[in-house]
């Protein structure tokens, strides 16, 4: 069987995109997904995303980590899927779609920037050493001094597989404050089991955690990730973070076919 795919990236977070409106992709074949995401023997990506039909929204997002397993929400993947949906004429410049964590609204600007509404956040666990919150995916947020030379893979894996989060684990974000509205971060992603160049739900978690812990009073945060720049904005109502938007580029890389 010949499979047509598109490759997209958002600040270095890269994805295999498949138009599955015909419902022909073998969704239970985790080995196939892992093979397609393999950077040596497959196409290569941090994850694979299916664009499926949905009865009440423009489309359904089905997201797999690069290990082949279905996963929780991926912010940069969602933004890239919106750009993909526009490219194949499923949408124009505005959309509402469904993902594993619920409904998402998104817009595509004339400059190609995709703005994706994330879920509301009401619960944040803040401790002296770290914050934990779920922005569609679970995220540990921890400030470190020398972010540039920090061993993200080793330290991230130690926390992800440690006793703190049990068998399910968590994504791990290490953060450095640059100024009142700007933070740099590096993320260890579960499912990829390595550092990635960007993580959208991680950037969202960092922005909210930095506000919640008093590192910033701003509700518009700039995030420097290894693959570029993202921005997160939000409102705060009765201690709840609402109208949370993740903004950044989502770029088409190439299109191809592969035998499966």
In short:
With about 260 residues, the protein is an alpha+beta fold. It has four helices and 17 strands. The strands form two sheets. Strands 5, 6, 7, 8, 9, 10, 11, 12, 13, 14, 15 and 16 form a twelve-stranded mixed sheet that branches.
Task: Provide structural commentary.
- Strand 6 (102-108) and strand 7 form a beta hairpin.
- It is built from four helices and 17 strands.
- The protein has helices spanning 30-37, 75-87, 152-160, 200-212; strands spanning 2-10, 13-19, 47-52, 60-65, 94-99, 102-108, 113-117, 125-126, 131-134, 138-143, 171-179, 182-189, 194-196, 220-225, 228-237, 240-249, 251-259.
- With 260 residues, the chain is an alpha+beta fold.
- Strands 5, 6, 7, 8, 9, 10, 11, 12, 13, 14, 15 and 16 form a twelve-stranded mixed beta sheet that branches.
- It is 17% helix and 43% strand.
- The radius of gyration is 17 Å and the shape is globular.
- The termini are close together.
Name the descriptors.
single chain; 260 residues; alpha+beta; 12-stranded mixed beta sheet; globular
Describe the secondary structure blueprint for this structure.
Elements: E1 2-10, E2 13-19, H1 30-37, E3 47-52, E4 60-65, H2 75-87, E5 94-99, E6 102-108, E7 113-117, E8 125-126, E9 131-134, E10 138-143, H3 152-160, E11 171-179, E12 182-189, E13 194-196, H4 200-212, E14 220-225, E15 228-237, E16 240-249, E17 251-259
Parallel strand pairs: 2-3, 10-11, 12-14
Antiparallel strand pairs: 1-2, 1-17, 3-4, 5-6, 6-7, 7-16, 8-9, 9-10, 11-12, 12-13, 14-15, 15-16
């Amino acid at each position: 069987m010949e499979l047509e795919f598109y490759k997209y990236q958002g600040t270095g977070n890269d994805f295999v995109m498949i138009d599955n409106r015909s419902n022909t992709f073998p969704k239970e074949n985790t080995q196939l997904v892992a093979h397609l995401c393999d950077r040596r023997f497959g196409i290569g990506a941090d994850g694979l995303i299916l664009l499926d039909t949905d009865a009440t929204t423009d489309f359904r997002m089905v997201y797999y980590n690069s290990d082949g397993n279905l996963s929780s929400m991926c912010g940069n993947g969602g933004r890239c899927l919106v750009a993909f949906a526009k490219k194949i004429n499923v949408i124009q410049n505005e959309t509402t779609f469904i993902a594993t964590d619920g409904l998402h609204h998104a817009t595509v600007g004339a400059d190609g920037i995709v703005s994706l509404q994330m879920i509301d956040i009401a619960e944040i666990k803040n401790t002296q050493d770290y914050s934990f919150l779920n922005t569609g995916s679970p995220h540990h947020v921890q400030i470190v001094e020398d972010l540039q030379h920090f061993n993200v893979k080793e330290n991230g894996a130690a926390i992800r597989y440690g006793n703190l989060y049990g068998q399910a684990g968590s994504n791990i974000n290490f953060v450095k404050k640059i100024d009142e509205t700007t933070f740099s971060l590096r993320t260890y992603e579960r499912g990829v089991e390595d550092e990635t160049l960007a993580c959208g739900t991680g950037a969202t978690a960092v922005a909210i955690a930095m506000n919640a812990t008093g590192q910033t009073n701003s509700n518009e945060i700039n995030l420097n990730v290894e693959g570029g720049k993202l921005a997160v904005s939000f409102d705060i109502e009765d201690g709840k973070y609402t109208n949370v938007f993740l903004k950044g580029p989502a770029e088409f890389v190439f299109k191809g076919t592969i035998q499966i």
